[in-house]
Amino acid sequence: MTQKKKPALSTQIFIALLLAIGAGIALTGNPDFATNYIKPFGTIFLNLIKWIVCPLVFFSIMAGVVSMRDIRKVGAIGGKTVVYYLCTTAFAVAIGLFFANIFKGTFPVLSTTDLKYEPSATSVNFMDTLVNIFPSNFVKPFVDANMLQIIVASLLIGFALIMVSEKFDNIDFQAVEIMNEICMKVMEMILRLSPVGVFCLLCPVVAVNGPSVLGSLLKVLLVAYLCYIIHAVVIYSASVSVLGGMSPLTFFKGMMPAIIMAFSSASSVGTLPLNLECTEKLGADREVASFVLPLGATINMDGTAIYQGVCSVFIASCFGISLTFPQMLTIVLTATLASIGTAGVPGAGMVMLAMVLQSVGLPVEGIALVAGVDRIFDMGRTVVNITGDASCAIVVSNSERRKKA
Ligand code: ASP
């Protein structure tokens, strides 16, 4: 008797997405059930991912660095990656500002007297953000899951390993590679649960944010989603086809499982393992992907930058303020830098929006206007964030291959 073949993981994830939307709509009258009994299973899934992601990023970046065996090569790849990330992010904010300005006539001017937003204790000051990149304790970055600090630590130790190997005549780096493989294996095991995770994460979001909540915010959500789509379709299609030598259709098709995961989890870091898998299947070099993607999941946030551009214009118009051109340039700059400091976890972009608003003197309380539907913004911006990282892995892999040829 032939055994029935299980559908591919990507198909299972897609089915889970459709089921979650259906079940979420059915439960809009009773969101408590979804929140109390379905969401916890999504939380378990995310907790497992959060548990493994710190060692995964640490060993993956270190393995990426040592596999290049040459600090100059790491510098060259790192340089290309950072330039790509900064340019695409600046484009993203500009697209957000441009379209939000076109549609700003349709945004409401609100009576804003009852707005209350308590800025979180998280620092949004630029200099503090800069200082916080560097760890002051060896284990604390892991305890706090502070990705930027983990990246700094893994780069320093990776560089040191290369230098030490030169001194001691080629020690081999098997231990790092084994640790990396172990983390990947654990991740693979957790990822088998993604269809259940996707269902349990998405269903409560749909149930809680039923159609009525969207009401007046529908326009700003639509503008943000329009920009997400334009940025992905225009910028990433152009870069993967011109610089990466790949058809955009192949790229987006191959990225589908990671895109669905990003949409459901609203976490770039949580999507990292699936993103690694998808980009490698698409033909990105492992040594490049394992360096570029963890870095991108932490410092490259094009979707978040779009959201910040759109929301700045939206909040300004709600308060009856019109942004000047220099103010918009300031937003491009701060949102690009803010995206470096934004953690790849749900809701982080909204905290950094405070920094962007402050930079041009807009009232931070305006965040209260968009906070209620932040999750819906977040799902879309995370998709753009991870797709941008993947496009960079394809582009850099291709340029490295051409250099070798
Ligand atoms: N949730 C986003 C991410 O993980 C960050 C954000 O809130 O904008 O990429």
Question: What does this protein structure show overall?
Answer:
With 405 residues, the chain is mainly alpha-helical. The protein is 77% helix and 0% strand. It has 18 helices and no strands. It has helices at residues 9-26, 31-68, 71-103, 126-131, 140-143, 147-167, 174-191, 194-208, 211-214, 218-243, 248-265, 268-281, 286-299, 302-318, 325-341, 348-359, 367-371, 374-404. Helix 1 (9-26) packs parallel to helix 8 (194-208), helix 1 (9-26) packs across helix 11 and helix 3 (71-103) runs antiparallel to helix 10 (218-243). The termini are far apart. Mean pLDDT is 84; it is low at 112-123. It binds aspartic acid. Residues 266-268, 301, 304, 342, 344-349, 378, 381-382, 385 line the site of aspartic acid (ASP). Aspartic acid (ASP) binds next to helix 16 and helix 18.
Kindly list the characteristics that best describe this protein:
binds aspartic acid; 405 residues; mainly alpha
